[in-house]
Automatic annotation (TrEMBL):
<feature type="domain" description="Muskelin N-terminal">
    <location>
        <begin position="8"/>
        <end position="202"/>
    </location>
</feature>
<dbReference type="Pfam" id="PF06588">
    <property type="entry name" value="Muskelin_N"/>
</dbReference>
<dbReference type="GO" id="GO:0005737">
    <property type="term" value="C:cytoplasm"/>
</dbReference>
<dbReference type="InterPro" id="IPR010565">
    <property type="entry name" value="Muskelin_N"/>
</dbReference>
<dbReference type="InterPro" id="IPR006594">
    <property type="entry name" value="LisH"/>
</dbReference>
<dbReference type="InterPro" id="IPR015915">
    <property type="entry name" value="Kelch-typ_b-propeller"/>
</dbReference>
<dbReference type="InterPro" id="IPR008979">
    <property type="entry name" value="Galactose-bd-like_sf"/>
</dbReference>
<dbReference type="Pfam" id="PF24681">
    <property type="entry name" value="Kelch_KLHDC2_KLHL20_DRC7"/>
</dbReference>
<dbReference type="InterPro" id="IPR052456">
    <property type="entry name" value="CTLH_complex_component"/>
</dbReference>
<protein>
    <recommendedName>
        <fullName>Muskelin N-terminal domain-containing protein</fullName>
    </recommendedName>
</protein>
<keyword id="KW-0880">Kelch repeat</keyword>
<keyword id="KW-0677">Repeat</keyword>
Length: 760
């Protein structure tokens, strides 16, 4: 709402009602923030649901967030789980939030849902419903509540008008759906003409006429073919969760198994999507840094050793924790940064060398011996580097600056020495590098944002530098997407963008507002991120924690997708596999997923929609020098338009089969064997089981048939004005309509869903 130009401010409210209160813990106490006063709270008189407190704002408002204040100490009555509802009337509220509070003394701010059908949702009442306290047998307590939003009438008035009109229109559409489902077609036509409200898109009305009214199954399938040809199932496909398919990439049978990269972590990979070639350089094998350069051809499934020792060929020395990016159009690889053990650091070798590898000429070029001397970053490691191909500009952000002081790399995948999991160097105050831009044609560096040294603020506008973060460039949006990471001993979970043309920083998540851990990637774990600018999606593979103390208790893989347009995270899968199950990675077979790890590399081919993962550190406490050399591909799959069409055909033909069983069982049997069998997905166990059970319909008794009709019809057959065939077809039509976009289809709910029985 702030982005729309509305002024966000604290909103005044009163307490309208509450379920109960105990002693002097009045509900009005939550209007004042006195964290040192144990009596300044509302406390329910019971912990038996339902308990609630209902707040009434001075006037209708657009609410953006809610803040809960707390007592100065932890307290057993704090809300571990709660729900928040809002609306214009206390009898008609919708859920705005389902979350919980930490049991500490820090205030927590939550974003509230304020959009319905893409429009801002006005509220006059806010209802807070405690679900569980931190002490299981204790009553619920709320210490302080603050609401932030706008009461600007110019903003609120059109939202109320739209919302009232929306409710009226949806009520009419629900009536239209109910009338048509119950074969009251004359009343349906009359209501639709009188109100001029359309139930659905004309294509779906035509589908209903063919399928339900006429029972013309052939015409129904033709209409669905037309829908597929027009891409109308696209939104439904897009709404489906991805299904991950990992595949182990094994060398060809006749290929020398030694002619491939060895075990390593802290290496770098880039992919050329034009030639489907992956480049791999350097890393740490558990004993020493490496300086071999490899290429992998995806089409031929073969590795090529481009250089066994890049330093001998005028290229970079052996290194790990560096970064590399690829200019596909000009066939050039760029390499910057490295880590040096403390015993090898001295003034003369702390220069930040910068190299370019010409792929066509297979030759290294030293661009600069020390980027810091020409306006670039000092020698850094664990930074991030992205290329803007249009402007031929490389962006470098973050990373820790190497100095003669002792240090230890986490990114390289070494076992840490201290009990905290962070070495002595990280206990001192480290230095971090800012945001730099390197223009390739002119070979010039610019400092865009320096690190705000000593800043205690959390806001991403400062662009606090860090290590272990992710940074991706979106060429169409002209933005860098930066998120997560670590700064000293603080794990960051902020998320912001930097516009490379305007230098504008925009907050996506500031890291201070609580969100359900099941809805966002966890902080403190190694993250590898890629981007698909065509789909507007960011992908994150989260592996082991680099903190040794956290690692043994948090062995897991998780893969996340962030939709840039919808601003939504989705967890594709999460695997908390035990270390015993992962103890032997050498015997894995294709089709299984890789074990959790850190210090690995992940690249993405946005053309073929495939990820590739190589190597890393599995974090074995009993074998700290162990590194991996396994190679994997990952594809994220959703049902295709053709697969959905086949699923629709299965529903349609199953309906026709059920009708045939009632009039001609012999014909129905042949239809089952030929027509229906042809559209069964034999890879779907659930559909196969359903197909096999259909034969039971051929041998149903009259009693079983009557019971089936009652369960499907939801009304007594003696009172029903709808014949069984019409009702059966109508239910199938409802299932087909779910594959169409919401703006085309009838309401997803039915009028009968809102009928409830009073409690006894």
């Amino acid at each position: 709402m702030a982005e729309a130009g509305f002024e966000m401010k604290k909103l005044n409210y009163s307490v309208d009602s509450c379920s109960s209160f105990s002693a002097t813990y009045f509900p009005e106490n939550i209007m004042k923030d006195f964290p040192t006063d144990q009596a300044s709270r509302w406390s329910s008189d019971s912990n038996i649901p339902p308990q609630f407190i209902l707040l009434k704002l001075e006037r209708a408002s657009l609410i953006e967030s809610i803040t809960f204040g707390k007592y100065e100490k932890t307290h057993v009555c704090n809300l571990k789980k709660f729900c928040i509802y809002g609306g214009l009337h206390p009898e008609n509220l919708v859920e705005l939030l389902n979350s919980g509070l930490k049991n500490d003394n820090q205030p927590e701010t939550f974003s509230l849902k304020h959009l319905v059908e893409g429009k801002m949702f006005p509220c006059r009442f806010i209802k807070i419903v405690p679900v569980q306290s931190w002490g299981p047998s204790f009553n619920f307590s709320i210490w302080y509540v603050e609401l932030v939003g706008t009461q600007d009438w110019d903003a609120v008035k059109p939202c109320i008008q739209w919302y009232n009109a929306f409710r009226e229109r949806e009520a009419i559409r629900l009536c239209l759906k109910h009338l048509r489902q119950n074969q009251c077609l004359e009343a349906f036509d009359c209501l639709q003409k009188r109100t001029k409200v359309q139930l659905e898109d004309p294509l779906l009305s035509e589908l209903h006429w063919a399928m339900v009214v006429k029972g013309d199954y052939e015409a129904t399938e033709q209409l669905l073919h037309r829908a597929v040809d027009n891409g109308l199932f696209g939104p439904y496909i897009h709404s489906q969760d991805y299904v991950p398919e990992w595949s182990r990439i094994l060398p060809c049978i006749d290929e020398d198994p030694c002619h491939r990269p060895g075990m390593r972590g802290g290496h770098q990979m880039c992919i050329d999507t034009n030639t489907e070639t992956i480049y791999l350089f350097g890393g740490w094998d558990g004993v020493q840094d490496l300086n071999d350069l490899w290429s992998y051809s995806v089409p031929s499934n073969s590795w090529t050793l481009l250089s066994n020792n890049t330093e001998e060929e005028g290229g970079p020395s052996a290194r790990s924790c560096h970064k590399m990016c690829l200019d596909q159009d000009h066939r050039q690889l760029f390499c910057l940064g490295r880590y040096l053990d403390s015993q090898h650091r001295h003034t003369n070798n702390l220069k930040s060398d910068f190299y370019m590898y010409d792929i066509e000429q297979r030759k290294w070029h030293l661009i600069c011996e020390d980027t810091a001397a020409v306006g670039g970053p000092k020698l850094i490691f664990d930074h991030q580097m992205c290329l803007d191909p249009e402007k031929r500009t490389i962006y470098v952000f973050g990373g820790r600056i190497l100095s003669p002081a002792p240090g230890y790399p986490e990114e390289r995948g070494l076992a840490v020495a201290s009990s905290s999991g962070i070495s002595g160097a990280f206990l001192s105050e480290p230095q971090f590098s800012g945001l730099y831009a390197y223009h390739i044609p002119t070979s010039t560096w610019r400092l865009l944002r320096d690190d705000p040294i000593g800043s205690q603020g959390v806001g991403p506008i400062e662009m606090r530098s860090r290590i272990g973060h992710s940074m991706l460039f979106h060429p169409s949006e002209r933005k860098l997407f930066i998120f997560a990471g670590q700064r000293s001993k603080e794990y960051l979970n902020d998320f912001f963008t930097y516009n490379v043309d305007t230098a504008e920083v925009t907050t996506v998540t500031d890291g201070t507002r609580r969100r359900d851990p099941a809805q966002i990637p966890a902080a403190g774990f190694t993250q590898r991120a890629t981007i698909d600018h065509e789909l507007n999606e960011i992908y994150i593979l989260s592996g082991l924690s680099k903190d040794k103390d956290k690692r043994d208790d948090n062995v897991k893989n998780s893969f996340w997708v962030y939709n840039i347009v919808d601003n939504k995270w989705t967890c594709v899968y999460r695997n908390d596999s035990s270390r015993e199950k992962e103890s032997d990675t050498s015997n894995r077979v294709p089709g299984e997923e890789p074990c959790p790890r850190f210090a690995h590399q992940l690249v993405y081919d946005h053309v073929k929609k495939a990820h590739y993962l190589f190597g890393g550190n599995p974090g074995r406490s009993n074998d700290p020098k162990m590194r991996l050399d396994d190679f994997w591909s990952l594809r994220l799959c959703r049902p295709s338009q053709g697969q959905l069409l086949t699923r629709c055909q299965f529903l349609i033909r199953k309906c026709q089969f059920r009708e045939l069983t009632e009039v001609d069982p012999i014909r129905a049997m042949f239809y089952l064997q030929n027509n229906l069998s042809a559209v069964v997905d034999r890879t779907n166990d659930e559909q196969m089981a359903e197909f096999h059970q259909l034969t039971n319909l051929l041998f149903r008794t009259e009693e079983q048939q009557e019971e089936d009709e009652l369960l499907n019809g939801k009304v007594d057959s003696a009172e029903s004005t709808v014949n069984s065939s019409y009702r059966l077809r109508s239910s199938v039509f409802d299932a087909l309509a779910r594959f169409f976009p919401d703006y085309m289809a009838q309401p997803r709910f039915s009028l009968t869903d809102f009928v409830a029985f009073d409690k006894a």
